[in-house]
Amino acid sequence: MNYFPDEVIEHVFDFVTSHKDRHSISLVCKSWFKIERYSRQNVFIGNCYAINPERLLRRFPCFKSLTLKGKPHFADFNLVPHGWGGFVQPWIEALARSRVGLEELRLKRMVVTDESLELLSRSFVNFKSLVLVSCEGFSTDGLASIASNCRHLQDLDLQENEIDDHRGQWLSCFPETYTSLVTLNFACLEGETNLVALERLVARSPNLRSLKLNRAVPLDALARLMACAPQIVDLGVGSYEDEQDSESCLKLQAAIRKCTSLRSLSGFLEAAPHCLSAFHPVCHNLTSLNLSYAAEIHGSHLIKLIEHCKKLQRIGDKGLEVVASTCKELQELRVFPTDLQGGGNTAVTEDGLVAISAGCPKLHSILYFCQQMTNAALITVAKNCPNFIRFRLCILEPHKPDHVTSQPLDEGFGAIVQACKNLKRLSVSGLLTDQVFLYIGMYATELEMLSIAFAGDTDKGMLYVLNGCKKMRKLEIRDSPFGDAALLADVNKYETMRSLWMSSCEVTLGGCKRLARKAPWLNVEIINENDNNRMEENGYEGRQKVDKLYLYRTVVGTRVDAPPFVWIL
Amino acid sequence: MDEFVNLKATELRLGLPGTNNVCEERVSCNSNSNKRALQADAENETETSPPRKAQIVGWPPVRSYRKNNIHTKKNESDLESQGIYVKVSMDGAPYLRKIDLSCYKGYSELLKALEMMFKFSVGEYSERDGYKGSDFVPTYEDKDGDWMLIGDVPWEMFVCNCKRLRIMKGSEAKCLGSGV
């Protein structure tokens, strides 16, 4: 290989797209490092504070696509206070100053402002794709800048963001000459939508493949939109209320019938269930169905819908036995609680999980909320589905044991990790002792992300995991009795991981300070919202418990944008 | 006295497991403070028979976005009973307040409540001249984003269209109040 000219090697590298593989290539020799550097198109940064834009640009001067992640995962559950960080502005400023030809920006859990979006829209002539997931801090004015200025935009994908909606005029900011739209997802916008502008936009977008509407798009508008875009592959229905207008319904049915490319269905944010039958003609082609926001759809309607969906691969819903018997191709399933208090929803138990595992042999990813679980069920699931890559089980009541035997669920989860040799992501729940972590450390060799809540007895539990899981990248723990001994046992382990989160555990300020001293290449953040609880210098500080600890490896030292309630040791 | 203490210990209870706050103790033993859930889930507690467990921050681990969206459906149907809360700002005040428009049957009740809340008075309303005799003028933002004088339209129409209230003061108010 070394006798080939660089261009040839570069051409070969073009076929290598996964980040892991490209990283491996770059380590082979100096010349490959150099070639890989200049030819790298896509950069993924899992923690925006692990590196800074200047160093990014020094190493990869020619990239086209950047993925950035900001806040830790537990921010999704309100455990990270507002203002913690994850600001995209300095990144966009640095990229705009450089000559990088950015075409795609994908952000997750970051703070984005209208100013950032405006700067983005004006700085990159070939900008094509903006994907924002769980971000906040911007309004529809920012979207208006993107619409107005990005001449070659193909994707505008807004997933579950908190957007200040100034009501609907951003859609009319797309110029009349603009026809390159491929993906448009604005399901998370709360306000009214300019339906006329939307219809005109869709009508002049022959390449439109994915369209996800918000609540404000009613049934008759949906019919018109689908009539303009029969080529659609992925549809998110907005408001689906039946206004007793049979003409609208008929028009919709006629339009839907023509959508022979439709493979993925979601939304139904406000759904009148009897209208679902309009979609039956296309169900047999669906590979992905997400009804998780359709709170009003119950039992029989759901069952009828799913019975039509023979090819389903990805599903998020509440009707399980039917899924098990119909969807043999199912690969990914998410079952959310309808009643977040845990008081109701007795329909989802271990039986549903067992049925799914028995009926859907291709299942590899599951997120399952339920009331109760047993070891026997988990052992059966492990036998039925040894192919799990992601297994996230959340028993709604913390510390809940096997409801038949009253034993901890150690054996059940132990069976899962022993059988599923490719398990990369695991969330555990229910009553668990240190034993389950012994199993995880022993068997979960490929595990990259582990979420622990209300589990374990002593530091041994955490130690089993840190010592055993060689590929661990993200470890997040809450309300578990792990303390300084576990935290400090192997400081170098954290260099091999992206981050560690520990909240409401037994770690003390003294322990964290010792860690920070031993590992200067770590940012050890103490997040402390309670001013009364200030971590002041006093005689007892060493033993003062830390409420929230977030540590991560970084090559650029302490970040400068930390708010007052974050103390970086 | 001792007898009473012992009686309690031997008392037979028919409560469900967990009624005796065992769950709550376990739950709070590892957290440093007794935080209550940030979501307004508490309002949705109804007649379910399992006793109300202590609310834990960030549990169950469902994204806030999803929690808010699923509850929107419930909230909309309970709108009448849950009230129509709008923000009220007063020029010069350090923070805003919220009031429930469904508590009032008409403008006079609303204005009286505002006067009491912010310690001011509005003056006399007339269709021609707006509010005269005071430095303060009550206004509201309607669905179109325009700032309107309170009192011009029928009460029901006002309640449907009102997004937030603002009590203007001083020269800005004078312009609005003097029927420009």
Automatic annotation (TrEMBL), chain A:
Domain F-box, residue spans: 4-45
One Pfam family name from the record? Transp_inhibit
Q: Which UniProt keywords apply?
A: Auxin signaling pathway
Which PANTHER family does this entry report, sorted A to Z?
Answer: F-BOX/TPR REPEAT PROTEIN POF3 (PTHR16134), PROTEIN AUXIN SIGNALING F-BOX 2 (PTHR16134:SF132)
Task: Quote the protein name from its UniProt record.
Answer: F-box domain-containing protein
Q: Which organism is it from?
A: Brassica napus
TrEMBL record, chain B:
**Matching InterPro entries:** AUX/IAA_dom, AUX_IAA, PB1-like
GO cellular component, alphabetical, reads:
nucleus
Please list where the region (Disordered) is annotated: 33-56
Q: What's the short name of a Pfam family annotated to this entry?
A: AUX_IAA
Q: Where do the PB1 domain residues begin and end?
A: 83-170
Keywords, in A-Z order: Auxin signaling pathway, Nucleus, Repressor, Transcription, Transcription regulation
Q: Which GO terms describe its biological process?
A: auxin-activated signaling pathway; regulation of DNA-templated transcription
* Localization in the cell: Nucleus
Looking up PANTHER family in the UniProt record yields: AUXIN-RESPONSIVE PROTEIN IAA17 (PTHR31734), AUXIN-RESPONSIVE PROTEIN IAA3 (PTHR31734:SF262)
Chain's role: Aux/IAA proteins are short-lived transcriptional factors that function as repressors of early auxin response genes at low auxin concentrations.
* Quaternary organization: Homodimers and heterodimers.
The family classification in the record reads:
Belongs to the Aux/IAA family.
List the protein's name. Auxin-responsive protein
This chain's source organism reads Brassica napus (Rape)
Top-down, what is the taxonomic lineage of the species of origin?
Eukaryota, Viridiplantae, Streptophyta, Embryophyta, Tracheophyta
